[in-house]
Design a protein that fits this description.
elongated, alpha+beta, 16-stranded mixed β-sheet, 28 strands, about 30% strand, single chain, 13 helices
């Protein structure tokens, strides 16, 4: 895939005094006459190059390369069918230049019988990062990044913070619930970051409290057993005590010691976990705990497949997966959400849950904005690895630049035939001052905003359908489509919005060719605050 370059990020005012062409023309008049011809030739060459830019009236302000990426990939390290290197090779063949692995941190589910839940239990422990070894996992992925320098390979994880049981094992109605609520964590640095990820399967932090003291009750059995043994010794010195009585006391003492030991092992380490799998749904607490943990380590978190609905069976255990899009409204400080493919029914469309979250940010009810990306959720080869893409805007192709793009919203999600389209530019600017903001940025305006949009069409792409049917570009402000543009080929759009409300923060975003559920481009927003002129 060719990498288009954004030659204009509109950082400076459009002024003839700072435009490079008149400056060079003026400079050519000042050079000595013998060198003037050479200067004129150089100026002509520069004009030829400059004329290739689609925005002649805008000063050069920076460059972004577009890097197509595949996010949310599973290898044989967890529940995928291909090795990590096979996945990288497949991605490279498909034109993918950034590969982000998110093997499961742990896939360990346990069900214990009360009152000995930790002693008598069924354990399902499938392949995962922790089973493979967190340090080995990091070394494996980083070795691939070194081996294929033209491809950015990043390690991450798909964390399963919580699950709970419902039904009865005896009635064969035992069902695992909420096990599908997953969060992608990217940007973790050390093996211990992975090893200590909080989850029910990996063990949530626990604390000493009143229940901890209650869990020490087996000590009373040790005391009772000791009393029986001591009573036996005292009675054994008396001739009138029968042998049967002495043996009974010994047996009772041994029984007390044994039961006490079993329950001590069961109750160890005598601390109460924050969350467990035996007390039903426990809200968004487990997920917020994991988000906070990753944030403390400068990592990034993205809710995965929030609209998934699926029923499966794992080693005889029924697993029910239900949509959990409302949890996105009740958790905070996560980095973003995956909208493709399981996120375009109620989250990604105009006026959906994502727009509600963005409005919360505009109203000051959230500390940070929430971005979107496209996730592949690749496990087996039953669909193309490049079917869903996240396209990153970076100034250099590196791990740090990709992570920065994910953190700052300089990316867009694409799926299906829309991969034949490239969103090369999306800018909000103020005409008078020349100030502007790019995707993921914020800007203060004193006048009505001007929106610039550039979309190119690759008609040679295997999925391209646009020569025949064209496509639409929806410009969305605060969750409402304010303008729909129709196009049949590459297009540069300049649109002046008449909207201006002083001291109000709004946002603009794009939805391109999203008339079908699993197709299109969804951009990240640009935030605008209207201020009075000083």
């Amino acid at each position: 895939m060719n990498i288009p370059i954004l030659r204009n990020v509109y950082r400076y005012p459009v002024s003839v005094l700072i435009h490079p062409i008149p400056l060079l023309a003026f400079f050519s008049l000042l050079v000595p006459k013998p060198f003037r011809r050479m200067t004129t030739l150089l100026l002509g060459a520069y004009l030829l190059v400059w004329s290739g830019s689609p925005f002649l009236d805008i000063c050069y302000g920076g460059e972004y390369a577009l890097v197509p990426g595949s996010v949310h990939l599973h290898s044989t390290i967890s529940n995928g069918e291909k090795t990590a290197e096979e996945i990288v090779a497949l991605a490279r063949e498909s034109g993918i230049e950034a590969v982000i692995f998110t093997d499961h941190d742990t896939m360990r589910w346990t069900y214990g019988l009360s009152p000995l839940r930790r002693v008598i239990q069924k354990v399902i422990n499938q392949n995962s990062i922790l089973k493979y070894g967190a340090e080995n996992y990091i070394d494996t992925i980083e070795a691939l990044d070194t081996k294929y320098p033209e491809t950015v390979v990043i390690h991450g994880t798909e964390a399963i913070p919580f699950y709970y049981w419902q039904g009865s094992v005896f009635k064969k109605t035992l069902t695992l619930l909420s096990g599908n609520k997953h969060i992608l964590a990217v940007g973790l640095k050390t093996a211990s970051d992975y090893q200590n990820l909080p989850s029910v399967g990996n063990g949530f932090p626990a604390s000493f409290n009143g229940e901890s003291f209650v869990s020490l009750w087996p000590l009373s059995l040790f005391a009772l057993g000791w009393w029986f043994v001591s009573l036996q010794r005292k009675r054994s010195t008396r001739q009138e005590v029968s042998v049967n009585t002495v043996s009974l006391n010994r047996i009772l003492g041994i029984i007390c010691f044994f039961i006490g030991a079993v329950f001590m092992v069961n109750n160890f380490p005598f601390r109460t976990p924050l969350y467990d799998q035996y007390h039903g749904d426990q809200g968004t607490g487990p997920y917020q705990h994991l988000i906070d943990y990753v944030n403390e380590r400068d990592g990034l978190t993205f809710w995965a497949h929030p609209e998934v609905k699926r029923t499966a069976e794992i080693q005889g255990v029924r697993v029910d997966s239900s949509p959990y899009e409302n949890d996105l409204l009740n958790t905070h400080n996560y980095t973003g959400i995956a909208v493709f493919s399981e996120g375009m029914r109620h989250i990604g469309p105009p006026g959906g849950i994502w727009d509600k979250i963005l409005l919360q940010y505009c109203l000051g009810k959230r500390e940070r904005p929430v971005w979107v990306l496209g996730e592949v959720d690749y496990k087996v080869g039953d669909f193309p690895i490049d079917e869903t893409q996240t396209v990153f805007f970076v100034q250099e192709k590196s791990r740090e630049a990709i992570l920065h793009a994910m953190k700052s919203g300089k990316m867009y999600a694409a799926m299906g035939a829309a991969n034949a389209l490239t969103l090369t530019n999306f800018v909000v600017e103020e005409v008078q001052s020349g100030n502007s903001a790019f995707m993921g940025e914020e800007i203060q305006l004193t006048t009505k905003p001007r929106i610039r949009i550039s979309v190119t069409v690759n008609h040679d792409h295997t999925l391209s359908e646009y020569r025949e049917r064209g496509f639409t570009i929806d410009l969305i402000r605060n969750g409402t489509v304010i303008k729909t543009f129709e196009a049949t080929d590459s297009v540069d759009i300049v649109y002046d919005d008449d909207y201006i409300h002083l001291n109000e923060k709004v946002y603009y975003r794009l939805a391109i060719d999203t008339s079908y559920l699993f197709r299109g481009i969804v951009s990240n927003p640009i935030f605008v605050t209207f201020k009075e002129k000083l």
